[in-house]
Design brief:
Elements lengths: L11 H64 L5 H15 L1 H5 L20 E9 L3 E9 L2 E7 L10 E10 L8 E3 L7 E13 L7 H11 L1 E8 L3 E10 L7 E6 L11 H4 L10 H5 L7 H4 L2
Antiparallel strand pairs: 1-2, 1-6, 2-3, 3-4, 4-9, 5-6, 6-7, 7-8, 8-9
Length: 298
């Protein structure tokens, strides 16, 4: 007997369903593929944009870095003399703000200051000042201004004597040449005499650069210096005893023991006239004309 096998054919409905599923699957895969490609493209585009942005930032950074390098060069040792002079003038102007604030230059003959260039040798001056109380103003040039201290009893050549020195506002270098009378009612009103003047230098032995030695000594409150004046010479030190407001700090002025020291002497009483004009305090107050240079030098 012959065996007959019957092969069941898929119905149209089943075939259509499977075809539809396959078609749907293919469509979904196609959509997914296109979406993935689109996303990948977008990501690539974003990466490209990000890369461009990063490149721009890098370029900007390079430019900024170049500017910074130029700025460093401008402020370094290779800066032009004009730039250096401008910065120095700005520092001086800032340092004289308090001095100028206290004075009316339409009334007083004191110099406004700030226009004189520092000299090769650091300037030194002591001015005898009969204001509300008689005192001596010690001024030492540093960084374009005259650091100033009011010394009530004046300097002493006796190393055993320590003189109180009250720090006051910085003065302009031009003030070293001022001798005359400040009008009453103005700050420091009274007669001013140039009692001594000359130059000074660093008095320590622990600094390679003398200027840095002076700055560091001033900052620490152990300011060593050597005077080369008409009346005062030799080694001295200013020692800060009380901090606080640096413009009103208290210091001690002390003469070191050296050949210029004179124990038991009173140099303030010994010299009563100006080293520039030869006039006494009353003569300056009266407006008397300066004497001859030879007599003024004594």
């Amino acid at each position: 007997m012959t065996e007959h096998r019957t092969t069941r054919r898929p119905t149209r409905r089943g075939s259509a369903k499977r075809a539809g599923a396959a078609s749907t699957g293919g469509t979904e895969r196609s959509r997914t593929k296109r979406a993935g490609a689109k996303a990948t493209g977008a990501k690539a585009t974003g990466a490209k944009a990000t890369g461009a942005k990063a490149t721009g930032a890098k370029g900007t950074g390079t430019k900024a870095k170049g500017t910074k390098a130029t700025g460093t060069k401008a402020t370094g040792t290779n800066e032009s003399p004009r730039a250096s002079a401008s910065k120095s003038a700005a520092r001086v102007t800032g340092g004289l703000a308090e001095y100028r604030r206290k004075r009316d230059f339409d009334r007083t003959a004191e110099p406004r200051g700030g226009g004189r260039k520092p000299s090769p040798a650091l300037a030194y001056v002591i001015q005898k000042h009969a204001a509300s109380h008689l005192h001596f103003d010690l001024r030492l040039e540093l960084d374009g201004v005259m650091k100033s201290w009011a010394v009530p009893k004046g300097p002493s050549l006796d190393p055993a004597v320590k003189r109180l020195a009250m720090q006051v506002e910085d003065h302009p270098i031009e003030y070293n040449a001022f001798e005359g009378t400040i009008p009453q009612g103005e700050y420091g009103g009274g007669t001013v005499m140039i009692w001594d003047r000359g130059s000074y230098r660093y008095g320590g032995e622990d600094a390679v650069d003398p200027m840095e030695g002076l700055r560091e000594g001033y900052r620490r409150g152990d300011f060593k210096f050597v005077l080369q004046g008409r009346r005062l010479t030799g080694s001295w030190v200013l020692v800060r005893t009380r901090r606080g407001d640096p413009r009103r700090a208290q210091w001690l002025l002390i003469k070191h023991r050296d050949e210029a020291a004179a124990p038991g002497s009173d140099v303030v009483e010994e010299f009563q006239s100006s080293v520039v004009t030869g006039r006494t305090m009353p003569e300056i107050a009266a407006g008397r004309k300066p004497r001859g240079r030879r007599r003024a030098a004594s």
